[in-house]
Amino acid sequence: MIRVGVNGYGTIGKRVADAVHAQPDMELIGVAKTQPNFEAHTAGERGYPMYAAIPERSPLFSEAGVELAGEVDELVAEADIIVDCTPSGIGAENRELYETHHTPAIFQGGEDADVADVSFNARANFDAARDADYVRVVSCNTTGLSRIIAPLEEEYGVEKVRATLVRRGGDPGQNSRGPINDILPNPIKIPSHHGPDVKTIFPDLEIDTLGLKVPATLMHVHALNVTLEDDVTGAHVRQLLEGENRVYVIPEGMGIDGAGKLMDFALDAGRPRGDMWENCVWGESIGVNGRDLYLFQAIHQQSDVIPENVDAIRAMFDLEDQKTSMELTDRTLGIGISGSPSGFAEQARAEFADD
Ligand code: NAD
Question: What separation in Å is there between the alpha carbon of 339 and the centre of ligand 1?
Fold first, then answer.
């Protein structure tokens, strides 16, 4: 049993905590928070021991009626591994704390790549994290791109990727972010930093990316053009992507014409927090012209990286091989949409419970 602590309990941290809690080979020993807000109360209801991330703020927790198990230092000392889910830049500052206690750690994609020894995506480079002490799970966009590039690279070879990323302005709770009524080239410099981030996973890949920000909170949408090394058919690519459990090829006839309906779909199916862990590729958008492949995909930024954090733990502790780890993560969380799409999450979890 790997004893896992989560430092930073916001959008990503609370999801990672739930995912770790659901694993048969991991124990969630506690979460660290800076303030006793609504998420702290929910964590308490779930029975997660709470640690103060900033010791001077400990009294705020008792005043708010949130029981503390201790301070973050104690959590780090007790844990076999910490998943750092603090805001961009804070993770790098925390590395010293983890090193002091000789506790391995996972950082998130908001950190620079040099925060860790390895940048990680379960589908593309699982084995690179074996026995590493510090690993960075790449960002939501890089995770989404890596899950598509890996099978294309293996099946056909990739000559060049060009991707336009239409990015949500902020998460639903980030009411200070924008734009509210604008369409921003962002970053305005072309190509964007996203391509180099993908190259932390595929060092030899040719890739150019462009980014925009729009007044939306639901998901990112990517327009992809991949020049392959072989001539392909759209049907063949579709079949390939349909074989990937963390990619959902949206069938024609589902009436899902955008991110809004995808989020409704996840909520209707009873997914926790309405999460959509899979890349969502519109089947109708898969088009081929010679060696050029085109497609649209939507990425749920709040949840696609969650299974990757779980798999990174297994890789770092050499617990399972790539396939076994990804399958276990997917079964325990209910990831994968095949067969009847209604109630898919409940169905997957029920099957796991019956085992
Ligand atoms: P968030 O702001 O929702 O949550 C961060 C949490 O950490 C908050 O609860 C905050 O109070 C807490 N915190 C702040 N300082 C802390 C400290 N010193 N110690 C402990 N906790 C502290 O942020 P998030 O969206 O969950 O992002 C976390 C990381 O995940 C970032 O690197 C981000 O780039 C990355 N990420 C975010 C998304 C997304 O869409 N939200 C997607 C993929 C990756």
Answer: 35
Q: How far is the CA of 46 from the centre of ligand 1 (A)?
A: 20
What pLDDT, in 10s, does the model give residues 135-157? 999 999 999 999 999 999 999 99
Q: What is the pLDDT of residues 183-201, one digit of tens each?
A: 999 999 999 999 999 999 9
| More confident of the two residues 97 and 346 | 97
- Coil, strand or helix at 90: helix
Q: Which of 12, 74, 140, 176 to mutate to test the pocket of ligand 1 (most atoms within 8 A of CB)?
A: 12
> Cα–Cα distance between 325 and 315 in angstroms, integer?
8
pLDDT greater than 60 at residue 243: yes
Q: Is 53 in the pocket of ligand 1 (CB under 6 A)?
A: yes
> What is the structure's pLDDT at 66?
95
Assess contact for 167 and 218: CB atoms under 8 A: no
Is the CB of residue 315 less than 8 Å from the CB of residue 325? yes
**DSSP states of 115-155 as a string?**
GSSEEE-HHHHGGGGTT-SEEEEPPHHHHHHHHHHHHHHHH
- The pLDDT confidence band at residue 178, using thresholds 50, 70 and 90, is very high
Whether 86 is in the pocket of ligand 1, judged by its Cβ within 6 Å, is yes
The catalytically annotated residue of 22, 105, 129, 140 is 140
63 has pLDDT over 70: yes
Residue 173 burial (CB count, 10 A) = 12
Residue tagged 């239409």 (tokens): 166
Active site residue 140: yes
| 49-85 as b/e: b if 16+ CB within 10 A | bbbbbeeeebebbeeeebebbbbbebbbebbbbbbbb
Report whether residue 144 contacts ligand 1, using a CB cutoff of 6 Å. Answer: no
Average pLDDT of the residues in 344-354: 51
Quote the mean pLDDT of the chain.
95
Give the mutation target among 85, 95, 145 for probing the ligand 1 site: most ligand atoms within 8 A of CB. 85
Structure tokens at 118: 């390895």
Residue 77 has pLDDT above 90, yes or no: yes
